[in-house]
Automatic annotation (TrEMBL):
One of its GO terms (molecular function) is metal ion binding. InterPro entries: Creatinase/aminopeptidase-like (IPR036005), Pept_M24 (IPR000994), Pept_M24_MAP (IPR001714), Pept_M24A_MAP1 (IPR002467). This is Methionine aminopeptidase. Its cofactor is Co(2+); Zn(2+); Mn(2+); Fe(2+). The lineage of its organism: Bacteria, Pseudomonadati, Pseudomonadota, Alphaproteobacteria, Sphingomonadales. A divalent metal cation 1 binds at residues 111, 122, 249. GO terms for biological process: proteolysis. It comes from Sphingobium fontiphilum. A divalent metal cation 2 binds at residues 122, 185, 218, 249. Keywords: Aminopeptidase, Hydrolase, Metal-binding, Protease. It catalyses: Release of N-terminal amino acids, preferentially methionine, from peptides and arylamides. Belongs to the peptidase M24A family. Methionine aminopeptidase type 1 subfamily.
Length: 276
């Protein structure tokens, strides 16, 4: 049985197996953190150009996070030493920023998590360097649709399985593979909390959604099979069959009637093409 715990001002901020239900103060905190995440992802758009290194993008994320009154939650997280993850082409997630310079046609996910007053705003988007192939663009479009179809299912009375099901059906309709090895997660003052938000599933299964639940939805979709391979650095996850992979992530909170997306772009730059 799923356990829930109501969060009061003095409630513990540690990881729990019970699902935390937050109050209005929690929504206010997540709004600030989510807003900063979205502003950082917005501000990166003009910097994603041929020749820029992924480390330079990480530097921008770090300085924007600090300027916005936050701290990058990934810095020092389980030994990770960067301010964001940058996952290129066949990298599924947790790509480490470094010396690689972007080139025309690359597709990449940038995943940021500013922590503001202890609250975590976790979000990622895909970016395209110049122009890319039709098949890469189609993968990006469908992956964003998967995220939004999942979010459409996020309302009280529905179950986590309804979210996974909506994502899986849409991805597989396009013959894409849904990654099973990584999932979305509860968050709040804890970066990765319960529940696990799996991106496949059956309707009416899994924990029931209740007002006050905060979690991410972050489907990783491969052109080929779902299988992953972890690289020697212990972080970078790539597609086992070397096909392209895409991901989008929002942090949301369940309300009385549906959900609030904490990490929505204030300027409409939620998905490419990012043209004004
Ligand atoms: N932001 C990632 C997520 O969506 C987590 C990155 S943890 C790191 O959950 F250590 F790899 F940065
Ligand atoms: Co996340
Ligand atoms: Co993330």
């Amino acid at each position: 049985m799923t356990e829930y715990m109501t969060m009061t001002a003095d409630a513990p901020i540690s990881r729990s197996t019970a699902i935390k239900l937050y109050d209005e103060a929690g929504f206010a905190g997540m709004r600030r953190a989510g807003r900063l995440a979205a502003e950082i992802l917005d501000a990166l758009v003009p910097h994603v150009v041929p020749g820029v290194s992924t480390q330079e993008l990480d530097d921008i994320v770090r300085s924007m996070t600090l300027a916005g009154g936050g701290v990058p939650a990934t810095l020092g997280y389980r030994g990770y030493t960067h301010s964001c993850c940058i996952s290129l082409n066949n990298v599924i997630c947790h790509g480490i920023p470094g010396d690689y310079r972007l080139k025309e046609g690359d597709i990449l996910n940038i995943d940021v998590t500013p922590q503001v007053d202890g609250w975590h705003g976790d979000s990622s988007r895909m970016y395209i360097v110049g122009e890319t192939s039709i098949k890469a663009r189609r993968l990006i479009d469908v992956t964003y649709e998967c995220l939004m179809l999942g979010i459409e299912q996020a309302r009280p009375g529905n179950h986590l399985g309804d979210i996974g099901h909506a994502i899986q059906v849409h991805a597989e309709k396009h013959r894409y593979g849904v990654v099973r090895d990584f999932c979305g997660h509860g968050l709040g003052k804890v970066f990765h909390d319960s529940p696990e938000v799996v991106h496949v599933g059956r309707p009416r299964t899994g924990p029931e959604l209740r007002p006050g639940m905060f979690f991410t939805i972050e489907p990783m979709i491969n052109i080929g099979k779902p299988g992953i391979r972890l690289m020697e650095d212990g972080w970078t996850a790539v597609t086992r069959d070397r096909t392209l992979s895409a991901q989008f992530e929002h942090s949301i909170g369940i309300t009385e009637t549906g959900c609030e997306i904490f990490t929505k772009s204030p300027t409409g730059l939620d998905a490419p093409p990012y043209v004004g």
